[in-house]
Amino acid sequence: MMINNTIVDNDTLLPDRGYFYGYGVFETLRVINGTIIFLEEHLSRLNKGLMYLGIQKAINEKEVKAAIRALSCDNGVIKINVSEENTVFTTRPLSYGQMHYEEGYRLTLSRVKRNPTSHTVSIKSMNYLDNIIELEKAKKHGFSDALFLNIHNEICETAVANVFIIEGNKIITPEASSGLLRGIMRQWVMNTYPVMEEKLTLSRLLSSEGVFVTNSVMGIMKVIALDEVTLNQHKMVQEIASKYGEVIDGMGRNL
Fold first, then answer.
1. Whole-prediction pTM value?
2. Which fold is adopted by the domain 2-92?
């Protein structure tokens, strides 16, 4: 672990509102052969979040690259947490394997509703309590992740990923105004393919021709079921996943 530019063996943190209240932001990035995937995009979102909170800091590429060298993270995941008094870099192994992509994800519907006007939905806030509790509940009951609706019963996102559906060969994702984090992988899909942003209902997801979720660590993951309902599968999901695989393979080679 690296805290405030120092490698430490314990959890030495300076008490601040980040420590006490989750007043800060974080990013989770994938590292392949020493290359940080979408580093520029992650730092842009991180620094915009700091500005939103009025925290007078900005993290740059040099700091992140120095951290992965110091922490010997050539392959895996690096997480950056930033609050008023602390900048923390931690690493972990990649938790997604081939089995996950072959089997796909099973989602469960959360009873917790997103508030689209909340400050915490538009930034990657360290205040992640709803996400953590609902994700742990989902996994405890044999599911991969939890799906959130907002107070208007529109689909938002899962605890750790953005959601896409396929209807008639069209890729559709919930509008950001529904109450979701604009994910880095979500933006990659939208930059790479024609994607429509719409208000999505649960019934549309259940009747769609395919569903997939995205985040920067797992990439593209097909969804095979929501609770006890088996979802349709569409070849386009695998095509998108393969395209992304080619992109990150190229990034990993271009050191």
1. 0.93
2. D-amino Acid Aminotransferase; Chain A, domain 1 (3.30.470)
